[in-house]
């Protein structure tokens, strides 16, 4: 059942960390990278039982810190036991033979925008089509960003609850903050205490629409600290981006390549550094969304070396693509790759992959924010009017496997960066939180 707040979904993570198969992502084949769905007819997946009792037998069960051969027994969608050689009455249990396969969690995408009103249009994926795509790719939960209505958080949440009525899987909400006053501060407290929304995003870009100034960001960071909530930033220098955009237009550069040229990596690095320093001044953790450049990654690495609590989130498009697509002479092709911050030139993606494998960056989202070619064509004569956004909700799990589980990260790290790291991220906010103790408790809960 879909959740309307983040906290219930996190409780489910503690109970269902190995439920990729039962939650529709299923077992990942070692040699062929094929997913085996529990529901429906799938070759080699077994059969029998009434569908309420399932035994996934003989696979390599993987979580973020351990992989071992074990069975997974499920009743009514809840994992009852995870251990080797679970005895069951095969006449009343559907047995799925997972021999030679991994059994791992369904993914959690921490950064999506479904049915979002943006740049004069609405993203093409809603909470049904987006969920269908996610489930097809092995993601079984996502966290979407609620956009306030005229700055009103409660109205924004009600709007998104209505949008999510067609949900087909678990979801949670972050909340964007687009202006600041006493009412917004009060509503933030309501979001945390009554709705379980405890992460708030501040846009340092999109001047004239979503962008907040430094003084508003400072007040927001202070409020997040007082609530024990997580502050998130879209880090680009919005004033400089606006100037860069006008410079491109003045030079007669109107195509998609102007998008990348107008907001170079230095502007992402500057804003990331500024946000990190303001968070240090307030003494509160900071989550930097869609880290797309070496410039931003270096600032995060520096802060972490100095002991600051900063979480860096790359997105799958930034890990595996480069900006050559934005220079394609066919506008329809080039415009597909317009997102903010932009996909960077060759070299940035490999550096971000290395940062992910070394722990400088923690978990991978998508910034799934999809528009069709008709919508992208709004900017056919002015790149500033191209709706920003790319896909990834369906593709993330597969692309990360193919690009990273090839000597860069282990299969347990794969589970961490695609799923369980979000749990640890939120626990960083708790006083006295010990990552190692929590990992040990988490592991014991899974395998005992």
TrEMBL record:
Give the reaction(s) catalysed.
5,6-dihydrouracil + H2O = 3-(carbamoylamino)propanoate + H(+)
Question: What is the name attached to this protein's record?
Answer: dihydropyrimidinase
Signal peptide limits: 1-26
Q: How is it modified after translation?
A: Carbamylation allows a single lysine to coordinate two divalent metal cations.
Keyword Hydrolase carried by entry:
yes
Q: Which GO terms describe its molecular function?
A: dihydropyrimidinase activity; metal ion binding
Q: Which organism is it from?
A: Zea mays
Organism lineage reads as: Eukaryota, Viridiplantae, Streptophyta, Embryophyta, Tracheophyta
Q: Which cofactor does it need?
A: Zn(2+)
| Domain Amidohydrolase-related residues, every copy | 102-419
Family matches, as Gene3D superfamilies: Metal-dependent hydrolases (3.20.20.140), Urease, subunit C, domain 1 (2.30.40.10)
